[in-house]
From TrEMBL:
This is Putative Fe-S cluster assembly protein SufT. Residues 87-161 form the MIP18 family-like domain. InterPro entries: Fe-S_Maturation_MIP18, FeS_assembly_SufT_put, FSCA_dom_sf, MIP18-like. It comes from the Bacteria. It holds the Pfam family FeS_assembly_P.
Length: 184
């Protein structure tokens, strides 16, 4: 797997909220602002604006003239045994906005488990995950993306994402594909 960096110049078409990288601080981009797309993975966009990296949520893709991403589709009558593989597939659509590798292949997801809910056909999904660095300002944004995407799946009634830092993350947790993609 080879990762090629391709930048695309775009014009911000409407005022839109973004998050600065790596702090995660929310800011607004004004209509008419020039930007470069440096990464478009997992439904969000990493933009370079006047030397600052920013994350634009996929639901706001129209602000830069792009189509919003398609959600992973699954039948509403999904059998519970098919839910776990679907969640792992969904987690592979979540990316750290600074790294062109999904959070599963980065080794950030430590545990995935289910807890029963009162509704017999629904479960609570509990995910323990970490970040590449404990002080990463994008942690909340990544956890929110995980919540939004997994909660949209059938049979999921609730989700809890726990950011944990024990054991600490290191490169040995990355998949071979991730290491190759990053040239490690």
């Amino acid at each position: 797997m080879t990762y090629r960096r391709h930048r695309e110049d775009v014009l911000v078409r409407r005022t839109v909220g973004v998050e600065t990288i790596p702090s995660g601080m929310p800011v607004e981009l004004e209509a008419g602002q020039l930007a470069q797309i440096t990464q478009a993975l997992g439904g969000s966009f990493t933009l370079l604006v006047e030397g600052q990296l920013m994350r634009l949520k996929g639901q706001d893709a129209d602000a830069i003239g792009k189509e919003p991403p398609q959600a992973i589709s699954a039948p509403q009558d999904l059998h519970i045994d098919d839910l776990e593989p679907l969640i792992w597939e969904t987690l592979r659509t979540c990316y750290d906005p600074e790294i062109p590798v999904n959070i599963v292949d980065l080794g950030l997801v430590y545990e995935l488990r289910f807890e029963p809910l009162q509704e017999a056909d629904k479960v609570r999904v509990v995910i323990d995950m970490t970040l590449t660095a404990p002080g990463c300002g994008m942690g909340e944004a990544i956890a929110d993306e995980v919540c939004d995407k997994v909660l949209a799946l059938p049979r999921v009634g609730e989700i809890t994402v726990n950011l944990v830092f024990n054991p600490p993350w290191d490169r040995s947790r990355m998949s071979e594909a991730a290491q190759l993609a990053l040239g490690l």
